[in-house]
Amino acid sequence: MPSSGTQLTDPKFVTAASVSLYFAPVPGLVLASAVLTAIYQLWEQAKSNKCAARDLAVRCYVLLSHLAATIKSKGQYRSDKIRDAILDVEKTLQAVQMKMKCWALLNRKQAFFKQSAVKLSIQSSHEQLNTCMMKLNFTPLLSDHNWQEMARIQGRRDHEELITYLSDIANSSRVSQAVSQENTAIIRQLMVMMKEV
């Protein structure tokens, strides 16, 4: 089990509740921390596309972590450059949150019918994160996290989960149909017996 310090800094162990613990104390990151918390809550509540939502939340976390480290290493957050970086990250995270809000809370049926729109929204969010990282010269984050490959893998996992869910529905439907047919046969037998009486 990782230490509690690792759980706060490793995106794989982060929860919505722990985001504020890690980022809120960093000067200037209260709003960005609140938005990232909302993104993690959307991921945790997602009923479909959960893998893609997690991947997106983790990339947002990595972006904010890098900004927090930059602020801590500079020892100040009041410079124009740092303030501009904070605003850029806040805007990017807010845009991701708004897009995520449109699809993360869809039920499985709605998500099935809106698959292509959800996929485009996720891709657009990743591209916004890339643009922000490049603008802030956080290029190491771009090479360390091959988001396109991860998105493809997560998309396959989400698709497999959806197929499993749909096959469960089909199986349930078949069982219901069989029970219904059985009940119909029993009712017919009862009707025949009542006519004989």
Low-confidence stretches: 1-8
Mean pLDDT: 77
Give the radius of gyration. Answer: 24 Å
The general outline is elongated
Straight-line distance between termini: 72 Å
The ordered string of helix (H) and strand (E) elements is HHHHHHHHH
Structural class: mainly alpha
Record field, number of beta strands: 0
Biggest sheet record: none
What is the number of helical segments per DSSP (H or I, 4+ residues)?
9
Explain this structure to me?
There is one protein chain. It contains 9 helices and no strands. It is mostly helical.
Structural key phrases:
disordered N terminus; 197 residues; mainly alpha; single chain
Give a short summary of the structure:
By secondary structure, the protein is mainly alpha-helical. The N terminus is likely disordered.
Q: What's the arrangement of secondary structure elements?
A:
Blueprint: H1 4-9, H2 16-23, H3 30-45, H4 50-74, H5 80-104, H6 108-113, H7 115-135, H8 139-144, H9 147-196
Helix pairs in contact: 2-3, 3-4, 3-5, 4-5, 4-7, 4-9, 5-7
